[in-house]
Write a structure and sequence with these properties.
Blueprint (H helix, E strand, L loop, with lengths): L46 H4 L1 E11 L5 E2 L7 E6 L4 E7 L12 H9 L1 E11 L2 E9 L8 E9 L2 E7 L6 E8 L2
């Protein structure tokens, strides 16, 4: 694979979630449409650079060999919000999110859980890294966790990178300003 080459793999029939109840990191076999290239770091991030609402543009995972997958599908949706008093909230979901019946079964609830991910808490910024301290989460096992992501900027978008729960896979989450 060369720099600038576009990686495209077929879509899965149903994407799986980044997090599972057991704390696993699941990947679906989907490539990314972004070219492989170095992203310019912005070393002097300020709080004002983050404050506001951002829409999910793309989210992918990259293994040690450089293979990319979209854990929530290519058309995943979401939003992250940062307040001036250092509160934050993040939501990510599959585009074809499962809609359960009025009285969903346990299986229906599990399906809905697998297609939606959110948390909220506080945030702090140090140079080019943001840390989220989780006080609320769809998965209660995540409450109390601190998640740190490096930030770079490209074309007005914020690119967050960090290791996945397996400690090896790189997660990349790209946010664009809300329209």
């Amino acid at each position: 694979m060369a720099i600038g080459e576009i990686v495209t793999l077929p879509e899965p029939s149903r994407p799986c979630n980044v997090w599972t109840r057991a704390g696993d990191f699941k990947l679906s076999p989907v490539g990314t449409s972004l070219p492989l290239k170095s992203m310019r770091k912005h070393m002097s991030m300020k709080d004002d650079d983050l404050i506001g609402a951002w829409e999910l543009d793309e989210m992918y995972a990259e293994d040690a060999e450089g293979n990319r997958t979209h854990p929530m599908g290519r058309d995943a949706g979401g939003m992250i919000m940062y307040t001036p008093d250092h509160h934050m909230s993040a939501i990510v979901h599959t585009a074809d999110r499962f809609l359960p019946a009025d009285r969903p079964s346990d299986e229906d609830r599990a399906e809905a859980f697998a297609n939606y991910f959110n948390y909220a808490g506080s945030w702090s910024l140090e140079k080019d890294a943001v840390t989220h301290v989780l006080t609320h989460a769809l998965d209660p096992n995540m409450v109390g966790m601190s998640l740190t992501r490096e930030i770079s900027q490209e074309n007005g978008r914020m690119i967050f990178t960090g290791l996945g729960p397996d400690g090896v896979t790189k997660q990349v989450i790209i946010w664009k300003p809300t329209s």
